[in-house]
């Protein structure tokens, strides 16, 4: 009888742990962050999109605060490569949150992601000029949901 009682609580505990792992987590990205942080809170935000992307799993969210300069974290003009998973990048407002390429690089390079990505309340500013594949975002084949995005100073916004 005692073993049955303990067994029931063990099963309940395992179920709760399984449900917890299904909940998406938020990773915080801020111009005031540091890549030595874990990104799990606003006060512990990371500084680069590359670091934030390395911390997410399928279904997670990246919360953006400020205009992140991706030209400081990539070499060349291709932009930051997006992972092959479903995720969301969410800003507070397009007027205060987003990404810039400083005219040096494309902002995102999304290639062959068959899972849905979401981009919400963001600005894409000053991606590299003279891009035949889009100066802000390149996505030849993927699923995307876009909400409240602004493209500023873009040669070719999205192809």
Gist?
With 159 residues, the protein is an alpha/beta fold. The chain contains 2 helices and 9 strands, in the order H-E-H-E-E-E-E-E-E-E-E.
Radius of gyration (CA) equals 19 Å
Mean pLDDT: 76
**What is the share of helical residues?**
10-25%
Question: What order do the helices and strands follow?
Answer: HEHEEEEEEEE
The helix/strand class is: alpha/beta
Number of helices: 2
Describe the protein's architecture and organization.
By secondary structure, this protein is α/β, with parallel strands linked by helices. It has one domain (24-152). The protein has helices at residues 2-22, 49-55; strands at 26-30, 61-69, 80-81, 87-91, 97-100, 108-109, 113-125, 137-138, 142-152. Strands 1, 2, 4, 5, 7 and 9 form a six-stranded parallel sheet that branches. Strands 3-6-8 form a three-stranded parallel sheet, with no helix packed on it. Strand 1 (26-30), helix 2 (49-55) and strand 2 (61-69) form a beta-alpha-beta unit. The longest helix is centred in the first third of the chain and has 21 residues, at 2-22. It is globular and about 55 Å long. The N and C termini lie far apart (65 Å). Residues 1-5, 17-21 and 155-159 have low confidence and may be disordered.
